[in-house]
Design goal:
Shape: elongated
Radius of gyration: 40 Å
Number of helices: 4
Strand content: under 5%
Number of strands: 0
Order of helices and strands: HHHH
Largest sheet: none
Low-confidence stretches: none
Distance between the termini: 98 Å
Oligomer: single chain
Mean pLDDT: 77
Amino acid sequence: MVAARPVRKALLRPTPLLVSRLQRRYASSSDVDDPDMNGGYINPPPQKRQFRDPYADWWDKQERRNYGEPVHEDNDILGMFSLEEYTHFKPGKAIFLVSCFVATVFGLCGVVSLYYPDKPSAPRAFPGGLDVELGGPGAILARSTEDES
Protein backbone atom coordinates (compact mmCIF):
# COMPACT_ATOMS: atom_id res chain seq x y z
CA MET A 1 0.00 0.00 0.00
CA VAL A 2 1.27 3.40 -0.92
CA ALA A 3 -0.44 5.11 1.98
CA ALA A 4 1.27 2.88 4.57
CA ARG A 5 4.78 3.63 3.27
CA PRO A 6 6.51 6.93 3.87
CA VAL A 7 5.92 9.44 1.09
CA ARG A 8 9.63 9.74 0.29
CA LYS A 9 9.99 6.03 -0.47
CA ALA A 10 6.79 5.96 -2.52
CA LEU A 11 7.98 8.83 -4.71
CA LEU A 12 11.48 7.50 -5.28
CA ARG A 13 10.47 3.98 -6.38
CA PRO A 14 9.72 3.85 -10.12
CA THR A 15 6.65 1.96 -11.19
CA PRO A 16 7.32 -0.89 -13.62
CA LEU A 17 5.94 -0.54 -17.13
CA LEU A 18 3.45 -3.23 -17.92
CA VAL A 19 4.01 -4.19 -21.54
CA SER A 20 2.20 -7.19 -22.91
CA ARG A 21 3.76 -9.73 -25.26
CA LEU A 22 1.46 -8.59 -28.08
CA GLN A 23 2.56 -4.97 -27.68
CA ARG A 24 6.22 -5.98 -27.76
CA ARG A 25 5.66 -8.02 -30.94
CA TYR A 26 3.72 -5.18 -32.61
CA ALA A 27 6.35 -2.58 -31.71
CA SER A 28 9.17 -4.73 -33.09
CA SER A 29 7.42 -5.49 -36.39
CA SER A 30 6.14 -2.00 -37.17
CA ASP A 31 8.08 -1.75 -40.46
CA VAL A 32 7.09 -5.19 -41.74
CA ASP A 33 4.14 -5.29 -44.15
CA ASP A 34 1.43 -7.68 -43.12
CA PRO A 35 -0.18 -9.13 -46.27
CA ASP A 36 -3.44 -9.97 -44.49
CA MET A 37 -3.78 -6.66 -42.67
CA ASN A 38 -6.59 -5.48 -44.99
CA GLY A 39 -8.14 -8.88 -45.45
CA GLY A 40 -6.26 -9.58 -48.68
CA TYR A 41 -7.25 -6.26 -50.29
CA ILE A 42 -4.76 -5.15 -52.97
CA ASN A 43 -3.70 -1.65 -52.06
CA PRO A 44 -2.65 0.31 -55.17
CA PRO A 45 0.39 2.60 -55.02
CA PRO A 46 -0.37 5.99 -53.46
CA GLN A 47 -0.89 8.59 -56.19
CA LYS A 48 -2.80 11.83 -55.79
CA ARG A 49 -5.67 12.07 -58.23
CA GLN A 50 -4.64 15.66 -58.87
CA PHE A 51 -1.59 14.43 -60.79
CA ARG A 52 -3.52 12.05 -63.04
CA ASP A 53 -4.22 13.08 -66.64
CA PRO A 54 -7.39 15.21 -66.61
CA TYR A 55 -8.06 14.59 -70.32
CA ALA A 56 -7.89 10.79 -70.20
CA ASP A 57 -11.04 8.75 -70.73
CA TRP A 58 -11.99 8.14 -67.07
CA TRP A 59 -15.21 6.43 -66.04
CA ASP A 60 -15.52 8.94 -63.17
CA LYS A 61 -14.16 12.14 -64.70
CA GLN A 62 -14.40 14.19 -61.53
CA GLU A 63 -12.50 11.73 -59.35
CA ARG A 64 -10.28 10.57 -62.28
CA ARG A 65 -11.00 6.91 -61.63
CA ASN A 66 -12.09 3.94 -63.76
CA TYR A 67 -14.87 1.49 -62.91
CA GLY A 68 -13.64 -1.36 -60.74
CA GLU A 69 -10.27 0.25 -60.05
CA PRO A 70 -9.11 -0.52 -56.50
CA VAL A 71 -9.18 2.46 -54.19
CA HIS A 72 -6.23 3.22 -51.93
CA GLU A 73 -6.93 2.98 -48.22
CA ASP A 74 -5.91 6.64 -47.87
CA ASN A 75 -8.35 7.77 -50.55
CA ASP A 76 -9.52 10.63 -48.36
CA ILE A 77 -6.05 12.22 -48.61
CA LEU A 78 -5.28 11.16 -52.18
CA GLY A 79 -8.66 11.99 -53.77
CA MET A 80 -9.70 15.09 -55.69
CA PHE A 81 -11.54 16.57 -52.71
CA SER A 82 -8.45 16.64 -50.52
CA LEU A 83 -6.16 19.64 -50.22
CA GLU A 84 -4.48 20.55 -53.46
CA GLU A 85 -0.74 20.15 -53.56
CA TYR A 86 0.75 23.50 -54.57
CA THR A 87 3.39 23.01 -57.27
CA HIS A 88 3.22 26.32 -59.16
CA PHE A 89 6.33 27.99 -57.66
CA LYS A 90 9.40 26.67 -55.93
CA PRO A 91 9.96 28.11 -52.42
CA GLY A 92 12.86 30.35 -53.49
CA LYS A 93 10.86 32.07 -56.21
CA ALA A 94 7.84 32.43 -53.92
CA ILE A 95 9.94 34.13 -51.23
CA PHE A 96 11.41 36.45 -53.88
CA LEU A 97 7.94 37.41 -55.13
CA VAL A 98 6.58 38.03 -51.63
CA SER A 99 9.61 40.17 -50.73
CA CYS A 100 9.14 42.18 -53.97
CA PHE A 101 5.51 42.79 -53.00
CA VAL A 102 6.45 43.91 -49.47
CA ALA A 103 9.19 46.22 -50.83
CA THR A 104 6.74 47.73 -53.34
CA VAL A 105 4.11 48.40 -50.67
CA PHE A 106 6.62 50.02 -48.31
CA GLY A 107 8.13 52.01 -51.18
CA LEU A 108 4.71 53.30 -52.20
CA CYS A 109 3.94 54.20 -48.58
CA GLY A 110 7.24 56.12 -48.40
CA VAL A 111 6.54 58.07 -51.60
CA VAL A 112 3.01 58.92 -50.43
CA SER A 113 4.30 60.08 -47.05
CA LEU A 114 6.79 62.41 -48.77
CA TYR A 115 4.21 64.06 -51.01
CA TYR A 116 1.08 63.80 -48.89
CA PRO A 117 0.01 67.29 -47.82
CA ASP A 118 -0.43 67.99 -44.14
CA LYS A 119 -3.02 70.72 -44.81
CA PRO A 120 -5.77 71.25 -47.38
CA SER A 121 -4.66 72.30 -50.84
CA ALA A 122 -6.34 75.73 -50.65
CA PRO A 123 -6.69 77.15 -47.13
CA ARG A 124 -9.98 78.95 -46.43
CA ALA A 125 -9.77 82.65 -45.79
CA PHE A 126 -12.29 84.49 -43.59
CA PRO A 127 -12.63 88.27 -43.77
CA GLY A 128 -11.13 89.64 -40.59
CA GLY A 129 -10.09 86.15 -39.49
CA LEU A 130 -12.01 83.89 -37.13
CA ASP A 131 -11.48 86.12 -34.14
CA VAL A 132 -15.07 87.33 -33.99
CA GLU A 133 -16.63 83.98 -34.94
CA LEU A 134 -14.73 82.09 -32.25
CA GLY A 135 -15.43 84.59 -29.47
CA GLY A 136 -12.17 86.53 -29.41
CA PRO A 137 -11.56 89.92 -27.74
CA GLY A 138 -13.61 91.82 -30.35
CA ALA A 139 -16.65 89.57 -30.16
CA ILE A 140 -19.95 90.63 -28.63
CA LEU A 141 -20.45 88.70 -25.40
CA ALA A 142 -23.50 86.55 -24.94
CA ARG A 143 -26.20 87.72 -22.60
CA SER A 144 -25.90 86.19 -19.16
CA THR A 145 -28.43 85.76 -16.37
CA GLU A 146 -26.62 88.38 -14.27
CA ASP A 147 -27.40 91.11 -16.83
CA GLU A 148 -31.17 90.63 -16.50
CA SER A 149 -31.40 91.81 -12.91
